[in-house]
């Protein structure tokens, strides 16, 4: 591993701070099994305050699972998650928000979706109205405020999901393949909203398969392979000069089938 911040022997409070940022979320030896299969096999990582971390890796590597565990939607079988050095609790979860690949919207209007999310967080009256107005304007959805959310286009629904999450003013935003089903224009719109949110200090953890997106948005990259971290470090290094075989194979467009298996291109060149 490249990064001394991932030293497992250190406790969160004594961890070195990569690039000077404070650790916001620390994951230590996280494991998760289901149906007798170990799906996460001891993941360690540190998310720094204000950073943008991209989680990458092939289908079934455990990316979404890791996100759901970090957001407290699932309980780990083993391992710890620390929020600002203390075990994760309710307050930490309230300081986080998540956007899923398929927008999860209520069968109500755009406006009602925003109202509901903010009411759950205890906001009402002027404060709520102000945030809703900002969210609608930011997403370019002011003219659609009274439309049922579920009849919006895919791109509009995802923009609504994102500004709804941002209206809650989270410290950390998880995004699970937020642009997987979107066209280039909608993808750019989402990426710009993510970058603007990050510029305002919101920490970003985003799962993607898109190499271009990783280059556009990535600051740190964590590459998962078969429930383990194959490699992690600054995006510029991991994406262009990977040290591990799974990431090298991904960069070169080869199919990595495991440590003891020749790749398809290896076979072709024999
Ligand atoms: N709650 C769960 N219970 C049982 N198995 C699960 C659960 N969540 C995920 N899995 C399994 O864990 C493995 C990893 O799933 P996950 O969704 O994290 O993969 P992924 O890396 O996000 O893949 P993709 O890129 O295809 O979305 C899969 O085999 C999946 O079926």
TrEMBL record:
Any one Pfam family match given in the protein's UniProt record, by short name: ABC_tran
Span of domain ABC transporter: 25-251
InterPro entries in the record: AAA+_ATPase (IPR003593), ABC_transporter-like_ATP-bd (IPR003439), ABC_transporter-like_CS (IPR017871), ABC_transpr_LolD-like (IPR015854), P-loop_NTPase (IPR027417)
Molecular function GO labels: ATP binding
Keyword Cell membrane tagged: no
SMART domains: AAA
Keywords: ATP-binding, Nucleotide-binding
PANTHER family: FE(3+) IONS IMPORT ATP-BINDING PROTEIN FBPC, IMPORT ATP-BINDING PROTEIN
Stated family: Belongs to the ABC transporter superfamily.
Protein name: ATP-binding cassette domain-containing protein
């Amino acid at each position: 591993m490249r990064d001394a911040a991932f030293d497992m022997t250190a406790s969160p409070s004594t961890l070195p701070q990569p690039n000077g940022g404070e650790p916001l979320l620390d994951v230590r030896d996280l494991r998760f099994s289901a149906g007798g299969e170990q799906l996460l096999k001891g993941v360690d990582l540190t998310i720094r305050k204000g950073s943008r971390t991209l989680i990458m890796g092939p289908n079934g590597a455990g990316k979404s699972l890791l996100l759901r565990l970090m957001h407290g939607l699932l309980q780990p079988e083993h391992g710890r998650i620390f929020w600002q050095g203390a075990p994760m609790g309710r307050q930490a979860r309230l300081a986080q928000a998540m956007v899923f690949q398929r927008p999860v919207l209520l069968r109500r209007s755009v406006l009602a979706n925003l109202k509901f999310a903010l009411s759950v967080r205890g906001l009402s009256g002027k404060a709520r109205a102000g945030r809703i107005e900002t969210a609608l304007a930011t997403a370019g959805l002011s003219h659609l405020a009274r439309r049922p959310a579920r009849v919006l286009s895919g791109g509009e629904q995802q923009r609504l999901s994102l500004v709804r999450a941002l209206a809650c003013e989270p410290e950390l935003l998880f995004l699970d393949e937020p642009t997987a089903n979107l066209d280039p224009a909608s993808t750019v719109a989402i990426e710009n909203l993510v970058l603007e949110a990050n510029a305002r200090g919101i920490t970003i953890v985003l799962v993607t398969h898109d190499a271009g997106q990783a280059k556009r948005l990535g600051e740190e990259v964590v590459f998962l392979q078969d429930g383990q971290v194959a490699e992690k470090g600054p995006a510029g290094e991991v994406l262009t000069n990977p040290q591990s075989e799974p990431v090298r194979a991904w960069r070169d467009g080869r199919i990595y089938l495991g440590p003891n298996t020749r790749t398809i291109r290896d076979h072709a060149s024999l």
